[in-house]
Amino acid sequence: MEIQHFAYSGKLSFREADGEIECVGCQDVINGPAYISEEDNFAMHKVCAEMPPQIQKDAFHPHPLKFKLIDVIVCDACSRLLFSYISYRCMYCDFNIDFRCAKAIINDENNIEKRDDEDLQRTRTLHFCHPHQLTRCKVSPMTEFGEDMIENIWEPNKLKCVACKWKLQDTQTFMCLPCKFIIHESCMNDLPMQVQSSLFHPHHILHPRPFFNAGGEVRCYACRKKVNGFSFYCNKCDVDLHVSCAKYRTRATKHSCHPHNLLQLGKSIIKGISCCACGRKNYNDSLFSCRKCDFNVHPKCIPLPSSFEHKRHLHSLALVSPFAEDDSEDYYCDMCETERNPEIHVYYCVECNYIAHIDCVLSEVRQPQ
Ligand SMILES: [Zn+2]
Ligand SMILES: [Zn+2]
Ligand SMILES: [Zn+2]
Ligand SMILES: [Zn+2]
Ligand SMILES: [Zn+2]
Ligand SMILES: [Zn+2]
Ligand SMILES: [Zn+2]
Ligand SMILES: [Zn+2]
Questions:
Q1: Residue 355: strand, helix, or coil
Q2: Measured between alpha carbons, how far is 269 from 158 in angstroms, rounded to an integer?
Q3: Contact (CB, 8 A) for 240 and 227
Q4: Apex CA 79: angle with CA 116 and CA 167, to 5°?
Q5: pLDDT digit string (tens) for 254-278?
Q6: Does any domain span residue 270?
Q7: What range does the domain containing 98 cover?
């Protein structure tokens, strides 16, 4: 049995798959006989292949929805951002649904709720971080394949939050699809209207600067990496900083290896910066850094005791690399009881889960130099 499908130029035959293969429609694994191409790995479940090229379900949406091939969409039924080989798009308004939701609508499954204009309006918002309307969506659950496809289509933009630069899996976000602008909902709500005394540009107030399709490349003054979509900006000095770089907080320490104060910088800043002592660019490390002299060095590459007895603490303390001990968002130094940057090296006692700033520990061991 052979068929011609609207989403495929060749012929599909109904047969068992040779190995594990996914349906291009619902993206689930295929078990048993299905419509499979003889030429490439295009394959569809029987029920999926029987989906029509156009859907008209007035109870769900008042206009006809037509199939669209290979697209990144935010589904207006399930509010997920996803890569779809086949999705359905309204011929009259900005309304999209992914293949699975379309299937559920065709089958009248009642887990798909109709969304009227008011519902849709609730998922859209305006915010000072972007000049266009943002849509609330989730990047989840998604296969690695889907993630790679989106990043390929979005190149050079990445599937990362413009504010914190972290991945978006399974979190609520707001996005502008045409601009490939995406931000965690929590990061958006935490965005300040200005940043004062930023570590890397302390003397002027930094203001929000939304931009898109910017001509030329915008580089962050702190980490020297590209900035996409949004920055904190000093208009006196024409300086841009990532949100996370503008808000970066860390310790300054004095050490005999360098005449100036050294900042302890973690992985969100140091990517691509090499150590003056060993020459390596370790991503998951931290650096002591003097920005003025471009002097950067790993804590393990300068004379720091790696493990020793301490009079304030019973057990020996060991120098350990950045780690987060739990999911709580607050990190403290057990010695001075002030906040601690979870990206930088600390002294640690395994037995007591005692964690302290390097400089807090050293100041008690020897005279500061
Ligand atoms: Zn399927
Ligand atoms: Zn419509
Ligand atoms: Zn974020
Ligand atoms: Zn936009
Ligand atoms: Zn930066
Ligand atoms: Zn300035
Ligand atoms: Zn220096
Ligand atoms: Zn401390």
A1: strand
A2: 18
A3: yes
A4: 155
A5: 888 999 989 999 888 888 889 999 9
A6: yes
A7: 54-121
Residue 142 lies in a domain: yes
CA of 363 to the centre of ligand 7 (A): 21
Domain count, the chain: 5
**Are residues 138 and 181 located together in one domain of the fold?**
yes
**How far apart, in whole angstroms, are the C-alpha atoms of residue 102 and residue 86?**
10
Helix runs in the chain, H state only: 46-49, 99-106, 117-122, 144-154, 185-190, 243-246, 267-270, 358-365
Centre of ligand 1 to C-alpha 25, Å, is 5
- What CATH number is associated with residue 28? 3.30.60
CA 248 to ligand 8 centroid distance, Å: 17
Residue count of the chain, please give it.
369
CA 22 remoteness from chain centre: 26
- CA dist 265 and 325 (Å) reads 19
Any domain includes 360: yes
% of residues, the chain, pLDDT over 70: 92
**248 alpha carbon to ligand 5 midpoint, in Å?**
9
Contacts of 94 (CB under 8 A, 6+ apart): none
Q: Ligand 5: distance of its center to the CA of 225 in Å?
A: 6
pLDDT tens-digit map of 177-209: 988 899 999 999 999 999 999 998 999 999 999
For residue 363, the CA-to-ligand 6 centroid distance in Å is 34
313 shares its domain with 292? no
Q: Are residues 44 and 61 in the same domain?
A: no
**Gap from CA of 188 to ligand 8 centroid (Å):** 30
Residue finishing a domain among 105, 121, 137: 121
Give domain status of residue 178, yes or no.
Answer: yes
C-alpha of residue 253 to centroid of ligand 7, in Å: 12
More confident residue, 322 or 161: 161
Are both 175 and 150 inside the same structural domain? yes
Domain boundary among 145, 165, 189: 189
Ligand 2 centre to CA of 89 (Å) is 8
Distance from residue 126's CA to the centre of ligand 4 (Å): 10
On the question of pLDDT at 325 being above 70, the answer is no
| pLDDT recorded at residue 368 | 42
